[in-house]
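Q: I'm writing up a methods section and want to include an example of the input and output format. Could you take the sequence below and give the corresponding predicted C-alpha cells, formatted cleanly so I can copy it straight into the document?
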Amino acid sequence: MNELREIYHVPESIMEYLDGLNYKVDDIGKSNSNIFIFDDYILKISTLSFDIENEIRVYNNLKDKLPISDIIAYEVIDERVYILKSKLKGKMLCDDSYLGNPKLLFKLASDAVKLLWKVDVKKLDLQNTYDTIMDFGKKCLKEKTIDYDNSDKTITFKFKNFDEIVDYLENNKPQEDYVLSHGDLCLTNIIVENDEVVGFIDLGLTGISHRYHDLAILYRSIKYNMEGRYGKSYDGFEENALFDLLGIEKDDKLIEYYLLVDELLG
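A: Here is the clean output for your methods example:
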C-alpha cells in the first residue's frame, strides 16, 4: 500500500477507501494507464487526456441507463488523474469458459451490443466517437507520433501510410446510422456473470457513432481471440454468427472501414 502513496502519490481522499486492502496490477488490457484491481474497487491512474475526461462525462450521462461502474472518487493533481471506481463482479467475455463455448460467446456478445443499442442517444450529451478518433489520428500524424509500421497489416495492407488511410476515411464516410457506441468493444471490456452481461468497462472512447463502429471491433476481437492471436486457439468461429443474432447482414466494407478508424488510435 506504501507503493500507491510513495510511487503513485495517490491522494488521501482515495487512499481512505483502500488502506489495508490487497490488489493486483492489471496486465490484460492495452491501456496506457496504471490500473490496480481490488476485490471491490478499480483504481485508474493516468495523465489527463481526452479519453479520461470523457470517462467522467460518460458516467454522468449513462449511470442510470447502462450497467457501468460507479465513480466513487476522482481527483486531478498536476495533470495526473486518479479515478476510483466500483468493480463489476464477473468475468471478462474473453475468459476461457466463454471462448470454449462459441454458441454462448456469440449470444453474450450480441446481448452486449443490444444493451448499447437500447439507449436513446437523442438526449445524451456525448462526444461523436468517430470525430474524436479522426481528430486524434490527424493530430498524431501532424506530430509524427503514429507509426504505420506498427499498424495491423491485415487491416492496413491496402495503404502505404496513414496519410492515405485518413484520405480514404474522409472521402468514404458511411451514411449516418448513429447508436450509442462503446468505442472499444473488445471481449475484455464486456463483463459477464451467470451467463448474463452485467456491464461494460473502459469507457474512455464511448460516445455516439455508426453501429458498425462497435460491430467491427467486436467481430475482430472474437475472431482474433478464437484463432489464437493472443495464445490458445478455439474451434467454432462463425463469420456470420454475431450478425445473424442481431438480425443484420454482415457488411465487410463497413467492418474494414471502422477497423481502419480504430488503427488511428495507434
